[in-house]
């Protein structure tokens, strides 16, 4: 039997190579690789929707699900949230699911679809066959709210994926720290509607449980697409020449945020003579934080901010020591990518990394600038240590390969579907 999955990421075209966008790419690639089930993945709702028609037909319609309209001032009551999540069992609010037996899997983002229609969950638009067996949403904005509402009204099992928390939202762009408490209340409300909430780590699960989110929560790695990094070595000369890098290069990969340790990265660089490079885009407009503007406009003489690069393999080719002094992560996909490329890795010693990486085995963990500087000096001056850490890091990355991710996703989907069909909660033993 074919398992039909709507794996939805709103604003997909704007999230290319972001952490969330990469995580979703990994999910979809993993589901293609799994051999435990025949999976059809759909990446956009059957019919797109415009903001105007969403407001008209969904939020303010007489048949709207009131509990999918957030009240951030009153969403602190766990009992209310639990009631919201279980509302699909209320017969007064049931609906047959929308279906189209001729629908085929597509690989387009919501931005690429027809914007003149809306998801129609009215009685006149439904049939006896479900369009999807399960819905998996990866973001938390209005598009995801509409898709979640569609799942609730159609009684389709709903998985939400917590790529965003209050903790990693802070220090990401101008004003993000100020509004983070409101973000927490919204996330608590939205995530509590899931049949199951996925997140990338046990650390993130503990964070969400403390909000508290009133839904079962399961940790599953974002994984690493090892195959997509193959051949990275051939880019070394081109990318080092392009950014005028020489010698042992200390590098980072990803969007430039203070949360990711920007100030520490630059201040440690100032204390060494090595070339440092941060491969990844950074904001320059009004949304950019003061810290990001300061360091990217006037970086230390040995620090290069490359901005967007054409091929991420160029970053892992040009760099030698991956340096990631981040303050908070849900997992950190770029760490796994660097490890998959056999790079020696220097990390800040934060809770999320405890469950994945071991100091002096597949990485070096540090807490202070002096420790970071000393670790980098050790690796530069000890090629044997660098090689040993790199080889062990490759083995760690293999534990997160996409084949394993795909098998876990299918197992999770089947568990959620089985529980929904039996009209019961997911057994605690099935949540890992």
Automatic annotation (TrEMBL):
Domain Glycosyltransferase subfamily 4-like N-terminal: residue ranges: 130-227
Biased amino acid composition, Low complexity: 106-124
Stored InterPro entries: Glyco_trans_1, Glyco_trans_4-like_N, Glycosyltransferase_grp1
Keywords: Transferase
Pfam families in alphabetical order: Glyco_transf_4, Glycos_transf_1
CDD domains: GT4_PimA-like
Tagged with keyword Transferase: yes
Domain Glycosyl transferase family intervals: 249-395
Feature: compositional bias, Basic and acidic residues: 82-95
Key word Transferase present: yes
Compositionally biased spans, kind Polar residues: 96-105
GO molecular function annotation: glycosyltransferase activity
Positions of region (Disordered): 69-124
Protein name per its UniProtKB record: Glycosyltransferase
Species for this entry: Haloquadratum walsbyi J07HQW1
């Amino acid at each position: 039997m074919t398992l039909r999955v709507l794996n939805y990421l709103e604003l997909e075209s704007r999230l290319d190579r972001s952490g969330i966008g990469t995580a979703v790419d990994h999910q979809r690639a993993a589901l293609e690789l799994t051999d435990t089930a025949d999976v059809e993945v759909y990446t956009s709702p059957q019919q797109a929707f415009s903001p105007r028609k969403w407001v008209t037909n969904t939020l303010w319609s007489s048949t709207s699900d009131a509990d999918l309209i957030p009240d951030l001032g009153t969403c602190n009551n766990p009992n209310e949230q639990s009631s919201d999540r279980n509302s699909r069992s209320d017969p007064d609010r049931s609906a047959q699911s929308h279906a189209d037996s001729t629908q085929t899997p597509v690989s387009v983002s919501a931005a690429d679809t027809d914007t003149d229609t809306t998801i129609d969950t009215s009685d006149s638009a439904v049939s006896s066959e479900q369009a999807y067996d399960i819905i998996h949403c990866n973001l938390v904005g209005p598009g995801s709210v509409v898709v979640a509402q569609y799942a609730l009204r159609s009684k389709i099992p709903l998985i939400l994926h917590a790529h965003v928390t209050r903790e990693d939202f802070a220090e990401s762009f101008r004003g993000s720290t100020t509004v983070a408490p409101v973000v927490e209340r919204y996330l608590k409300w939205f995530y509590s509607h899931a049949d199951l909430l996925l997140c990338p780590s046990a650390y993130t699960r503990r964070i969400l449980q403390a909000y508290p989110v009133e839904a079962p929560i399961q940790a599953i790695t974002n994984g690493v697409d090892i195959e997509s990094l193959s051949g990275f070595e051939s880019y070394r000369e081109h990318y080092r020449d392009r950014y005028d890098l020489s010698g042992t290069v200390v590098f980072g990969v990803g969007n430039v945020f203070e949360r990711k340790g920007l100030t520490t990265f630059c201040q440690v660089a100032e204390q060494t003579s090595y070339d440092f490079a941060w491969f990844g885009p950074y904001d320059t407009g009004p949304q950019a934080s003061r810290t990001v503007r300061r360091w990217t406009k006037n970086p230390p003489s040995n620090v290069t901010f490359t901005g967007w690069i054409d091929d991420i393999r160029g970053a892992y080719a040009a760099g030698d020591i991956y340096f990631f002094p981040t303050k908070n992560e849900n997992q950190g996909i770029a760490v796994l990518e660097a490890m998959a490329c056999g790079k020696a890795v220097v990390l800040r010693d934060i809770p999320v990394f405890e469950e994945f990486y071991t100091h002096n085995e597949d990485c070096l963990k540090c807490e202070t600038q002096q420790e970071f500087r000393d670790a980098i000096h050790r690796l530069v001056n000890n090629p044997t240590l660098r090689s040993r850490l790199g080889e062990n890091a490759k083995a760690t990355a293999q534990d997160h390969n996409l084949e394993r991710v795909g098998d876990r996703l299918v197992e999770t989907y089947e568990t959620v579907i089985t529980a929904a069909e039996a009209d019961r909660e997911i057994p605690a033993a099935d949540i890992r």
